Amino acid sequence: MNINLLDKSNYLKGLFITARKDKQLTDTEKSILKKLSQKLGFANDFYEETISGLLANKYIPDDPIKFADKNIAESFVGDALKLIYADGCISDAEIDWIKETAAINDLNSDWFELQHNQIKQTPIQKIQSEFALFSII
Question: Which of 8, 16, 17, 125 has the fewest Cβ atoms surrounding its Cβ within 10 A?
Fold first, then answer.
């Protein structure tokens, strides 16, 4: 699938927002974000600069992300859920934000709950290595 630059940027931005929602940034989250940033084609310098000030950066708005394509939105929601479960520190703020993003992308709430429950039951090692983005790019 061909993902336009705006959706690539929004995908990464959304993952950064998701990671900071619990007001902490673990090494596991940093590693995942770096891997996904590279897959989306962003330079390592960009990733390093963004990650270094992520928690304090008030210029990244927390608005839910709207994608141009439903398949990209589904991929993003799955990857964002995996990101929050990968470090074992799950907050209501993270889940609520992902749920809002799913809603503005017209993803059914039943679909969201199914995805959420599946990821919640997935072993952490598998969560940390398998991302939907890899299958759509």
Answer: 125
